[in-house]
Amino acid sequence: MVDKRFSFSANRRIIAGLLVNLFSSICIVFLNKWIYVHYGFPNMTLTLVHFVVTWFGLFICQKMDIFCPKSLPVRRIVWLALSFCGFVVFTNLSLQNNSIGTYQLAKAMTTPVIILIQTTYYRKTFSTKIKLTLVPITLGVILNSYYDVRFNLLGTVFATLGVLVTSLYQVWVGAKQHELQVNSMQLLYYQAPLSSGFLLCIVPLFEPLSGDGGIFAPWSITALMAVFFSGVVAFLVNLSIYWIIGNTSAVTYNMFGHFKFCITLVGGYLLFHDPLSLNQALGILCTLSGILLYTHFKLVEQDEGKSRLAQKP
């Protein structure tokens, strides 16, 4: 009875974390796209704002005793901090230089890359059924974006780098939480300011500090409010990513990401008038079928694993 209550409570927390990530991730895509299109705010500077607000949000959480910081050696999280910078910067640059459909198509390729990394370097195995769920998802994404994809050279480079760095980052998030024995807030509390420091050194090399499009340009109040709100939403996105990967897996997080892909594509059609043809609608259904199959197979495997553990003397 206690195990059932614990399982129900754990599942409820996972569902809550997924819902927070769902709404915040969709919101951040449209909000950032709005900021780029209507205000022309510099990309890397916006990313820096996200990092600073994330660290400040965690600082407030720590002061409210929501979590207890754990001392971590900086050298153990340097590569994680660098990959965090690349993850956010390249995905934002992909969003800035591509349509929302193209941006989401590139992100969808993260799942097979993660499975490849975990299989090759971490000796993690995946069942044939789980691997086969990638087929309808990939076919759905391709069909979904066939009439929308308008890759330009710069956008292609950013999208490709974004997929590679994002895959590494998400694998390392789960690995570091287990390796250092820390929770999502404890790890992000040290990693966010370190990433901010790295990005602070890079921003002046690529973006103007003053004048048209610079961080110290005379931005309107509405633009500054939009940027700050984007930072708050980014805090929720970053925190929920760490929490979900730490409590499930990087693959599960990315499978859930494909569901967000479908919703974001519809939102792009409504807000930015991106085309949505019958073939794209069929692609959405194909992608959703792959997600549902993955969820079903994953739950069955988890139940079988629990049964085997219960049968052991």
What layout of secondary structure does this protein have?
Blueprint: H1 2-38, H2 43-63, H3 78-97, H4 100-108, H5 110-121, H6 128-132, H7 134-145, H8 153-180, H9 184-206, H10 221-247, H11 250-272, H12 278-311
Commentary on this structure:
- Helix content is 80%, strand content 0%.
- With 313 residues, the chain is mainly α.
- Helix 1 packs antiparallel against helix 10 and helix 2 runs antiparallel to helix 9.
- The protein starts with a helix and ends with a helix.
- The N terminus is likely disordered.
Give the % helix: over 70%
Residue fraction in strands:
under 5%
- Helix and strand element order: HHHHHHHHHHHH
What's the multimeric state? single chain
**How many separate helices?**
12
Question: What is the compact description of this entry?
Answer:
This protein has helices at residues 2-38, 43-63, 78-97, 100-108, 110-121, 128-132, 134-145, 153-180, 184-206, 221-247, 250-272, 278-311.
Provide key terms for this protein.
313 residues, mainly alpha, 12 helices, 80% helix
